[in-house]
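Example 5.3 — Glutamine--fructose-6-phosphate aminotransferase [isomerizing]
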Amino acid sequence: EKGGYPHFMLKEIYEQPQAIRDTFRGRMRENKGMIKMAGVDDHIDKFINAKRLVILACGTSWHAGLVAEYIIEELVRVPVEVEYASEFRYRNPVIDKDDVVIAISQSGETADTMAAMKLAKEKGAFVFGVCNVVGSSISREAHAGAYTHAGPEIGVASTKAFTTQITVLTLLGLKVAKAKGRISTSDLHMHLEELRLIPEKVEEALKSNDHVKEIAEVYKNASNCLYLGRGFNFPVALEGALKLKEISYIHAEGYPAAEMKHGPIALIDEHMPVIVIATRRGHYDKVVSNIQEIKSRKGKIIAIVTQGDVTVKELADHVIEVPEVMDSMSPLLTTIPLQLLSYHIAVMLGKNVDQPRNLAKSVTVE
Ligand code: M6R
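Solution (predicted structure tokens):
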């Protein structure tokens, strides 16, 4: 059942090229510059007229929502807010019929997300579900939706759900941008072509596995870890930290790289591993100066870089390469080595990778 892999998590990490392909299969007509998503097509007026989008989710799905905020704001030019479902539901949120609410949930059974979306519905919003489990409660409660088609995710640590959620939300953003005339046909073609190549690039990123394992060996006994990223990759830093926490029980924090100087930089010394996402197209120079700040405080730097990088390679203690890609799609690649890193550390520490202590696959109680 684990298809020859020692754990579901590793199997699911390796399934990502196929899972992403399954998510866009049948939806993309890249040669025609068209995207088919019945749940969006049937309610396109709601999306066109929305004054803002509000994304509700928990955990990793919330991180996918944050990536989507960056992508959709850029493409559609409408404000996007991303809320923890558990906070949203208890604060009498301002929501009305001109809002489109997107609830993201792998399981489709998360109690807080379900309650938050019901509340948004009561207030008159149009609610769109992005779920993986077909027929799940959230997918049934939504007015419309799009499935991620990632296949069953068994490991408690979410991996392929995250990348397929980002894929679906990218398609949604492109589709709405097109419907609103915010993107030219040639730009749309370009995005779709980039997306079509993502599965191969994820395969390529997975080839870093042995190297990531060597790095895991060096840092497995760390008691803290900092993850930094900017722009589209800021949420990936949060997600990398969550992965490490939940399966290896090492304390980790994700931060936008520029926030470091507002506090966390005080933590940095020679015992602190800092994982920095430093891809070429994503505020590269700014991230390089953040790396210099860490280095001058003797922090250990593990950088995720674009293939062929030279500058960061000279500064960092370790670099992990991912293929070149358009900035907005880089989270689909940069997240891969971070998943592998937490996986290997957890295995080396003898932890129960697929069923970490105190956690359940779907959190059906609040
Ligand atoms: O099924 P959901 O996507 O609604 O689950 C949300 C979170 O409980 C989930 O992502 C959790 O944070 C994972 N264990 C993270 O790996």
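Remark. Residues 13 and 159 are 6 Å apart (CA to CA).
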